[in-house]
Write a structure and sequence with these properties.
14% strand; Aspartate Aminotransferase, domain 2; seven-stranded mixed sheet
Amino acid sequence: MDYDFVGPHSGPMETFESLVRAEFTPKNTYLNTASTGLLPNRTVAALRTAVEAAAVGRPTDMFADVEAARASFARLLRIPVRRVAAGASVAVYSGLIAASLPKGAEVLTAGGDFSSVVNPFHVRRDLKVRSVPLEQVADAVRPGTALVAVSAAQSADGRVADLPAIRAAAREHGARTYVDASQAAGWLDLEADAYDYVAAVGFKWLFCPRGVAFLVVPEDLGGLTPLFAGWVAGERPWDSCYGPVEELAHSARRFDESPALFSYAGARRSLELLEELGVDAVRAHDLALADRFRTGLHTLGHQPVPAPGSPIVSVPGLGRRQGELSRAGIEVSDRAGNLRAAFHLYNTPADVDRLLGVLSG
């Protein structure tokens, strides 16, 4: 694929270009990061090394990879590493938070949000789950609301939540906040320290292998009970392998799931690359491409779902063309009848124009 990046071709942008060129080699027009991100070459190499080492009985220290990935994620979100738990699934962490709530507690969610965020609260039949349109979440917080759970960016159409307004409303009424950053971590300037809980999978915008997820908890550990704690949740894990864990980790590590080690061997390298590139540069690149696509859609007479400031663009009525686009070598998603295109660091203006060209036909 020929790369033609957005922005001036000198200085920091040159470094951005060279890093992306070295790490990503897509063979098609891949615009589906909102489903699964592409793996960098360094990540593929790390996975291969870990698997081959394990096959001959000389495994690498993949627990060190878990800790390196945890630390990298903490730096990206500008929070202390002691507040980060490492696991594999947002749904598991949503369930952990749901289990911490008292009977009858009210949970406020956004209508149509991703099931991994909201369903664990519905499974607890003794909670009061209330859903309102995304744009009304902040105004819907009221006395008695115990928790506001919302995605930073909506999976279905890319709309970005007004997180500062939600945070302010929650604080005013004494509610905790839970943000799923799975569709935002990696490009959004997320002030993670401002929320009680932040979860994110790694296999989308963080371009990690599947099997990687993180949970950010408050300094006081957020009143969570480590219900699924195993030996890795011990303050001294290798001394916690048998019988009850005598001393749980004093940090968020007490909420660790037993890690998918091969996935973390790769995740370490993916997050390392994102730190090298810088989230600000990634965001500028991604949003420029999304805006280029929106402009082209208007020229073709299509109206995307309004989602300013998002690299995810959803177009009503065009989801039916997903198969046609795939056959043309362009990968997008069909979500609820909408065509969903997601633009990330390995995409180029040529990718946008290629998509618009097929849609115009």
